[in-house]
Design a protein that fits this description.
This protein has two domains: 3-68, VC0802-like (2-Layer Sandwich); 71-141, Alpha-Beta Plaits (2-Layer Sandwich). The protein is built from five helices and seven strands, in the order E-H-E-E-H-E-H-E-E-H-E-H. It has helices at 16-26, 52-61, 82-92, 120-129, 137-141; strands spanning 3-11, 31-38, 42-49, 65-77, 97-105, 110-117, 133-134. Strands 1, 2, 3, 4, 5, 6 and 7 form a seven-stranded antiparallel sheet that branches. Helix 1 (16-26) crosses helix 2.
């Protein structure tokens, strides 16, 4: 089970994030999770949104370079050691993690972790076999 992540190439200049988020707002797209990795000249903005298709269309219409990537979303209990358990499962199965970002839902008592790995199908199977919840796209988009 994978979800769609939007990646946006962003110039590192004042106001750029405002323009991007305004384009999403105008398209009635709600952001679920966000991460940005930057250098002095540019960044890669990664987003999980409730309507990926509409978001891509809105961002491309705004003249941005956008791509969709499949990622995994885990739901783990918000307790010490739960994230370590999931990372151990991946390590023990030689599944490399390319990047991760997370957010916590106090309402649900869960931490939601978005991750990109080098073998998604195997990662999902191994995590599930070890009691880690893998979330569907609908579950993440509807948060």
């Amino acid at each position: 089970m994978q979800i769609q992540q939007i990646s946006v190439f962003v110039e590192n200049k004042s106001g750029r994030l405002a323009e991007i988020t305004e384009a999403l707002a105008a398209a009635n797209v709600d952001i679920r999770a966000v991460s940005i990795a930057d250098t002095s000249d540019f960044g890669i903005l990664r987003l999980i949104v409730n309507k990926p298709k509409e978001a891509v269309e809105a961002l491309k219409a705004a003249g941005l370079t956008v791509s969709l990537t499949s990622v995994i979303a885990m739901g783990i209990d918000d307790h010490p050691g739960e994230f370590a358990k999931a990372m151990r499962v991946l390590a023990d199965n030689q599944i490399g993690v390319e990047y991760i970002y997370a957010f916590v839902s106090r309402e649900h008592g869960k931490a939601f972790v978005i991750l990109r790995v080098d073998d998604s199908e195997r990662a999902v199977n191994m995590l599930r076999e070890n009691g880690i919840t893998i979330l569907s796209a609908e579950e993440i988009y509807d948060l």
